[in-house]
Automatic annotation (TrEMBL):
TM helices/strands, residue ranges: 63-86
GAIN-B domain mapped to chain residues: 1-56
Gene: Adgre1
Subcellular location: Membrane
Molecular function via GO: G protein-coupled receptor activity
Protein name per UniProt: AGRE1 protein
Top-rank lineage group of the source organism: Eukaryota
Keyword hit for Coiled coil: no
Length: 106
């Protein structure tokens, strides 16, 4: 089992037209990172859900994220400008690349 994650045995609880997963009546009694053994007190639709605890962000990861996004946006902007300025190279392929660049920039 990976750090920061825990597995829960659950069953589907249908109430009216809607439903939700519930841990009532089901417990995880064994297993490892690849297999789980659940014990439930009733018949229903069952699943194993993974609860992910938030991992504290590190400063270096935040810096790399913002620097990488900034560089990517600048490069995409320059790509869009280049496609718009160089009309002599205009073709269907360039048009598709321009649209893709605009979508990625947005």
């Amino acid at each position: 089992l990976q750090e920061g994650k825990e597995l829960h045995c659950v069953s589907w609880n249908k109430t009216g037209a809607e439903g939700s997963w519930t841990r009532e009546g089901c417990t995880r009694i064994g297993g490892d990172a690849l297999h789980s053994i659940c014990n439930c007190t009733h018949f229903s639709t069952f699943a194993i859900l993974m609860a992910v605890r938030p991992i504290p962000e590190s400063f270096s990861l935040t810096v790399v994220t913002y620097v990488g996004m900034s560089v990517s946006l600048v490069c995409l902007f320059l790509t869009i400008v280049t496609f718009l300025v160089c009309r002599s190279l205009w073709s269907v392929s360039i048009s598709l690349h321009l649209q893709l660049s605009i979508c990625l920039f947005a």
